[in-house]
Amino acid sequence: MRYAVLHDLYLNAMAEHFPVLHREVIQYFQPSRGRKFLDCTFGGGGHTGALLEAEAGVRVWAMDCDPEAGPRAQELKESFPEDFSFFDYNFARLAEIPETWFDGILFDLGVSSFQLDTPERGFSFRFSGPNDMRLNPREGMSAAEFLERAPVQDLVRAIRDYGEEPRWRNIIKAIVEARGSGVLADTAGFAELVARAAPPPPGPPARIHPATLTFQGVRMAVNRELEVLETALPAAFAKLAPGGLLAVISFHSLEDRVCKRFFRRLAGLPETSDDDTPKDFRKSWAELLTKKPVRPAAEEILLNPRSRSSKLRVIRKF
C-alpha cells in the first residue's frame, strides 16, 4: 500500500491543511483496487488524496459546496482522471449523487484550514474581515446579515444552544443594541463586542477567546449545520454497500451527539441513557465499530493543534 506517500499535487497544501485523523480513516476503510469511497467534505482534498494514493484503482467521489474547493479538486482530477469525480454540492444533496454501493463514506465536519485562514471568509476573529461564515458564499445569509436581522429567538438558538455560551443573555443584548452601527459587519469588531459583553472572569487567562463559542454558534446557525447533518447521515447510510463503513469526524459536542445517537439507533442500542425501548422492539442494521470515539494521537495534535477536539465514529452496514 502506497499510503505513506501522498500525491505531489497536495503536498504543499498539506503544509497548511492537515486532514484530521487521516491515518485512522485509512486503517478503517482499507482502500484497495476496485473499492469505492465517497468523501462528503472534500475541503483541502487531504482525505480524498490519501484514499486515491493508497493503491491504484481506488475510486473516490467527493463533494463540497465551497467554491474554492473546485480548483483543488480539478488538480486532483488531472492526476486521477478515471478514478476521481467531484460534485459542487453541499452534502445536504448527497442523495442526488447517482453512484451507490460505496465501500466507505466519510464526513469531516470541521471547518478547513483554508477557510479559517482566509480573512475574507469571516470564519475567524484572528483577522479583520467581512463577517460572512458561509460555507457556500454564493447562497444564503451571511453572519452579518443574520446578526442584523434574525429574531431574538434565533439568536438564542445560535448562541445559547449551538454555541453553548453560558453568558448568552449579555451577548444577545449587545448584538441587538449594535444593530445598524456597522460593528456586526466585521469579524474583529464583532469579536470585540462579544468580549466586552462577556469578558473573561478574573483569574488565570482563559483558554479560549471570549468570542469563540459565539462565533461557533453563529456559524452553525448560518449554515444550518445540525439540520443538514441529520438529513445527510441517513442518505449516506442508504448509499453504502453491504459491509460498507460510514465514518464521521466531528469537532463539536452537538454534532457528535447527532452522530452517536444515529449510529446507536442503527446498531439497535439505546440512543440515550433514558431510552428504555425494550430490546425486542429494536432493529439492528449495522455494527458499531467504535464503542467510544477515536481521538487523535498526541503526535497529530502536536503537528495540528486544530485536531485536538476531533472525534471519529465508524459503523459497518450489515
User: What is the 3D shape?
Assistant: globular
**Proportion of helical residues:** 25-40%
> What separation lies between the terminal Cα atoms?
27 Å
Main-sheet strand order equals 3-2-1-4-5-7-6
Q: Compute the gyration radius: what is it?
A: 20 Å
Number of strands: 7
Q: What order do the SSEs take from the amino end to the carboxyl end, as H and E?
A: HHEHEHEEHHHHHHHEHEHE
| Unreliable residue stretches | 1-16
What is the number of helical segments per DSSP (H or I, 4+ residues)?
13
* Mean pLDDT reading: 92
Structural class: alpha/beta
Q: Please describe the biggest sheet, giving its number of strands, its sense, and whether it closes into a barrel.
A: 7 strands, mixed
Query: Which range does the strand content fall in?
Result: 5-15%
List the helices and strands and how they pair.
Elements: H1 11-14, H2 22-29, E1 36-39, H3 46-54, E2 59-63, H4 69-79, E3 84-87, E4 102-108, H5 113-116, H6 143-149, H7 152-162, H8 168-178, H9 187-197, H10 212-222, H11 225-238, E5 240-250, H12 253-266, E6 286-288, H13 298-303, E7 311-317
Parallel strand pairs: 1-2, 1-4, 2-3, 4-5
Antiparallel strand pairs: 5-7, 6-7
Helix pairs in contact: 7-8, 7-10, 11-12
Account of the 3D structure:
Helix 11 (225-238) runs parallel beside helix 12. This protein has 318 residues and is an alpha/beta fold. The protein is built from 13 helices and 7 strands. Helix 3 links the parallel strand 1 and strand 2.
Summarize the structure.
It is built from 13 helices and seven strands. It is an alpha/beta fold. Helix 3 links the parallel strand 1 (36-39) and strand 2.
